[in-house]
Every structure is written in C-alpha cells, then in structure tokens.
Amino acid sequence: MNGRSSKHYQVLGVAPEASMAEIRRAYLMAARTAHPDLHHDSESSRRAAEDRMRRINEAWAVLGDPDERAAYDRQRLRAAAPQPTPRHHRSRHSGDAFRPFDDGPDEAFDDADDRPITDSALPRWLTVAPAVLLLGGLSSILFGAILGTGQVIGLGVVSIVVAGVLLLVAAPIVALGRAARGERRTGA
C-alpha cells in the first residue's frame, strides 16, 4: 500500500480492520493528547498541535461515519490494486481475443441515481389523471354514503377502477412506447 492509501488509519494509529469502537477510542486518545490547548509552550508547538488536530479530525470525519469509511476503504483498495497493463500488439491466437480495458472508476457515475436513462417521461395528463380520479372516486363514495345514493357510490367505484387502469396498465404501456420511440430515434 502507498502512503496515501491508508492515511486516515495511520493518523489514528489503527489497522484498517479495526472495529468502530477501536477507531473511536483511538480518536479520543489522539484528540486528548494532541489538542492545541494542551500545547501552549511556544507558538510553533501550538501550530504543530493545531495541524495534528486538524489531521485527526479529518481522519475521524471519514472513519467515524460508516458510509464515509466504506467509500474510503473502496477507494483505498482500488488504489492498492495492481493496474492492468494495456496490450498494444495484435495476436492471431484465439485466446488473445479483445478484452476491454478499464482505466479506472467513473467518478461521475452514481449508483444511487435512479433517474431514467431514456427520455420516456409520461405525459402530464397521465401522471395527474389517476390521482384526480382516485380522489374524486373516494369523495364520491363518501358523499354517496352520506347521502344514501347508490348511483354516486357507483360513480366513485368506477372512477377508482379507471384510475387503477390508467395507473397500472396505461402508464407503463405509454412509458415503454415512448422509450422505444426514443431508442429508434437515437439508433441505440
């Protein structure tokens, strides 16, 4: 491993396999000994203590948060892994067929981003109509029950069924149709 790949672990003096409790203990101990208020001997010793405390706090900000630590560990392990060397020669052997070369992680890619890749947004009326029909149907059933009229209750039930058909049947069909049209247009 290079010096940068385990920097935060080195600052706190713990192994990368350390538990969260061990990391917390190491942070508290390091913070107690390096706090600038304890180093008022000279200006240079105080500045050195402030710098050390800054590094300790940076390490704790990463290693003290489980999500940040996991991301840091992935980055650290990726940096420590040997990088494949690209092939620059042609070979006629079938075992040396093309193998794609990955030049590293794509930092712009976000696994949590669940926005659609294609432009298959539903028309506005198809996103609003089911909600309006559902609310109208529920209110019709409520008013029909209060007024005691079966026709108003029946209208509410029909409205809810139409909302369900629009939401569960029509919307996916329209979305798939728009996505297919978009793919044909772009040639994907």
What's the SSE blueprint?
Blueprint: H1 7-12, H2 20-34, H3 43-63, H4 66-80, H5 124-147, H6 150-186
* Number of structural domains: 2
Largest sheet: none
Kindly report the CATH topology of the largest domain: Helix Hairpins
Based on the coordinates given, report the CATH architecture of the largest domain. Orthogonal Bundle
CATH homology-level superfamily of the largest domain = DnaJ domain
- Span of the ends, CA to CA: 42 Å
Q: Tell me which oligomeric state these chains represent.
A: single chain
The Cα radius of gyration reads 31 Å
Which class best fits the helix and strand makeup?
A: mainly alpha
CATH class of the largest domain: Mainly Alpha
> Could you tell me the strand content as a percent range?
under 5%
* Number of separate strands: 0
Q: What pattern of helices and strands is seen along the backbone?
A: HHHHHH
Top keywords for this entry?
63% helix; 188 residues; 2 domains; disordered N terminus; Helix Hairpins; mainly alpha
Describe the structure.
The protein is mostly helical. It has 2 domains: 7-80, Helix Hairpins, CATH 1.10.287; 124-186. It is built from 6 helices and no strands. The protein has helices at 7-12, 20-34, 43-63, 66-80, 124-147, 150-186. The two termini are 42 Å apart.
